[in-house]
Amino acid sequence: MGENAVQYRVESLEDLSIIINHFDKYPLITKKQADYTIFKLAHSLIKNKSHLTNKGILELVALKAVINRGLSKDLVVAFPDIIPALRPEVLLPKVIDPF
Protein backbone atom coordinates (compact mmCIF):
# COMPACT_ATOMS: atom_id res chain seq x y z
CA MET A 1 0.00 0.00 0.00
CA GLY A 2 1.17 3.47 -0.81
CA GLU A 3 1.83 6.39 1.49
CA ASN A 4 -1.60 7.96 0.83
CA ALA A 5 -3.61 4.74 1.13
CA VAL A 6 -5.99 3.74 3.87
CA GLN A 7 -6.91 0.18 4.76
CA TYR A 8 -10.08 -0.92 6.55
CA ARG A 9 -10.14 -4.52 7.71
CA VAL A 10 -13.47 -6.28 8.06
CA GLU A 11 -13.55 -9.04 10.65
CA SER A 12 -17.22 -9.33 11.57
CA LEU A 13 -20.78 -8.76 10.37
CA GLU A 14 -20.83 -5.63 12.53
CA ASP A 15 -17.83 -4.29 10.59
CA LEU A 16 -19.73 -4.93 7.36
CA SER A 17 -22.60 -2.84 8.72
CA ILE A 18 -20.25 0.17 8.78
CA ILE A 19 -19.50 -0.32 5.09
CA ILE A 20 -23.18 -0.82 4.26
CA ASN A 21 -24.14 2.36 6.14
CA HIS A 22 -21.45 4.27 4.20
CA PHE A 23 -22.68 3.11 0.79
CA ASP A 24 -26.30 3.69 1.77
CA LYS A 25 -25.37 7.28 2.62
CA TYR A 26 -23.01 7.73 -0.36
CA PRO A 27 -24.38 5.46 -3.11
CA LEU A 28 -22.28 4.14 -5.94
CA ILE A 29 -23.18 5.74 -9.26
CA THR A 30 -21.96 3.10 -11.67
CA LYS A 31 -23.10 -0.41 -12.47
CA LYS A 32 -21.31 -1.44 -9.25
CA GLN A 33 -24.51 -0.28 -7.52
CA ALA A 34 -26.12 -3.56 -8.67
CA ASP A 35 -23.27 -5.57 -7.11
CA TYR A 36 -23.68 -3.59 -3.91
CA THR A 37 -27.43 -4.25 -3.81
CA ILE A 38 -26.81 -7.99 -4.21
CA PHE A 39 -24.04 -7.89 -1.59
CA LYS A 40 -26.42 -6.16 0.82
CA LEU A 41 -29.06 -8.88 0.26
CA ALA A 42 -26.44 -11.56 0.95
CA HIS A 43 -25.35 -9.76 4.12
CA SER A 44 -28.97 -9.66 5.27
CA LEU A 45 -29.39 -13.41 4.68
CA ILE A 46 -26.30 -14.16 6.75
CA LYS A 47 -27.12 -11.63 9.47
CA ASN A 48 -30.59 -13.17 9.87
CA LYS A 49 -29.05 -16.68 9.84
CA SER A 50 -31.22 -17.62 6.85
CA HIS A 51 -28.15 -19.13 5.19
CA LEU A 52 -28.33 -21.92 7.78
CA THR A 53 -31.47 -23.28 6.12
CA ASN A 54 -31.63 -25.14 2.80
CA LYS A 55 -33.74 -22.40 1.25
CA GLY A 56 -31.43 -19.69 2.56
CA ILE A 57 -28.22 -21.29 1.25
CA LEU A 58 -29.85 -21.68 -2.17
CA GLU A 59 -30.77 -17.97 -2.11
CA LEU A 60 -27.21 -17.08 -1.14
CA VAL A 61 -25.72 -19.18 -3.95
CA ALA A 62 -28.21 -17.67 -6.42
CA LEU A 63 -27.00 -14.21 -5.40
CA LYS A 64 -23.37 -15.26 -5.74
CA ALA A 65 -24.12 -16.50 -9.25
CA VAL A 66 -24.75 -12.93 -10.48
CA ILE A 67 -22.07 -10.99 -8.62
CA ASN A 68 -18.48 -10.44 -9.75
CA ARG A 69 -17.26 -13.59 -11.53
CA GLY A 70 -20.24 -15.74 -10.60
CA LEU A 71 -19.93 -19.24 -9.19
CA SER A 72 -16.65 -21.10 -8.87
CA LYS A 73 -16.33 -24.50 -10.51
CA ASP A 74 -16.77 -26.14 -7.10
CA LEU A 75 -20.03 -24.26 -6.45
CA VAL A 76 -21.36 -25.18 -9.91
CA VAL A 77 -20.69 -28.84 -9.11
CA ALA A 78 -22.24 -28.54 -5.63
CA PHE A 79 -25.30 -26.60 -6.88
CA PRO A 80 -25.87 -27.71 -10.51
CA ASP A 81 -29.54 -26.67 -10.62
CA ILE A 82 -29.12 -23.18 -9.18
CA ILE A 83 -31.10 -20.43 -10.89
CA PRO A 84 -29.16 -17.14 -10.70
CA ALA A 85 -30.93 -14.27 -8.96
CA LEU A 86 -32.20 -11.38 -11.04
CA ARG A 87 -29.63 -8.63 -11.26
CA PRO A 88 -31.06 -5.21 -10.36
CA GLU A 89 -31.11 -2.66 -13.14
CA VAL A 90 -29.04 0.44 -12.43
CA LEU A 91 -29.83 3.66 -14.23
CA LEU A 92 -26.77 5.84 -14.58
CA PRO A 93 -27.23 9.60 -14.14
CA LYS A 94 -26.83 11.69 -17.28
CA VAL A 95 -24.48 14.05 -15.45
CA ILE A 96 -22.22 12.66 -12.74
CA ASP A 97 -21.69 15.07 -9.85
CA PRO A 98 -18.05 14.76 -8.71
CA PHE A 99 -19.09 15.73 -5.18
How would the blueprint of this fold be written?
Elements: H1 13-25, H2 32-47, H3 54-64, H4 73-78
Helix pairs in contact: 1-2, 2-3
**Considering DSSP H and I runs of 4 or more, what fraction of the residues is helical?**
40-55%
Number of strands: 0
Major sheet characteristics: none
Count of alpha and pi helical runs:
4
Portion in beta strands: under 5%
Structure in words:
Helix content is 46%, strand content 0%. By secondary structure, the chain is an all-alpha fold. Helix 1 runs antiparallel to helix 2 and helix 2 runs antiparallel to helix 3. The radius of gyration is 16 Å and the shape is globular. The mean pLDDT is 90.
Give a short synopsis of this structure:
With 99 residues, the protein is mostly helical. The chain is built from four helices and no strands. It is globular and about 45 Å long.
Top keywords for this entry?
99 residues; mainly alpha; 4 helices
